[in-house]
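Journal club prep — side note

Before the paper discussion, L.F. wants everyone to see what a predicted structure for a comparable chain looks like in token form. Sequence:
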Amino acid sequence: MPRRTQHLLAATAALTTTVAAGALANPIDQIRPDAPELAAYGAFSVGVQTLDVTIPDSVDVLGVEGKDVPRFDRPLTLEVWYPAAEGTVPGGSYRALIRDGATEVTLTGQAVRDAEPATGTRFPLIVISHGYPGNRYLMAHLGENLASKGYVTVSIDHTDSTYSDQAAFGSTLFNRPLDQAFVVDHMAGMTGPLGDIVNADQTGVIGYSMGGYGALIFGGAGVTQASTEFSWVHPTACFPRIWQALTVTRR
């Protein structure tokens, strides 16, 4: 076999091995050497917890027909990253679904599952909201990184809007700011070691794509007239409910 061919085969094999190894590792805590200064992890070790919460008496947008406005208890799954107790040794992993909604992969990072939270201070709250579709791990790298810098970050699996349960767009359009508002209130009212370190009086919302839309509505932006005239929009149960709920939250 010609030497050049041998070299090409060896290089191909090495590249294949490297790609395969990288695909297995999927690290979310790697920082490029040319990244901006603030991209580096902060001084805190990071803990992570998964919470299942429910928004009671939600409008079931997907079931609205004419004057019929069904309601249900809307489930949300949250991933919460937070500054961990001193001495926590970094390292952990996540199992996440990718865009096809069926393939599960392992992500590795610095957060330690169910680590004891830091004590003695309260940390500002950051809500992270994925796009349509997405999931709570889409910006897990940012959740970990911000927690290492002294924030409690909570990322939402928005029902009807994840890779595995993507439903009609109307549900995302209606529920996105309400989900964000509920999570802020939920985190503000938490008790126990994790709740003790949350300072919801200082809160930010980070959104990607439809998460950004939700953040804008949550912050006081409006919607177009056309968006209130879809077939699934009930005149008193849909968008007016958003304004009422968010007005209460902003107080």
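L.F.'s comment for the group: The radius of gyration is 21 Å. Keep this in mind when we get to the figures.
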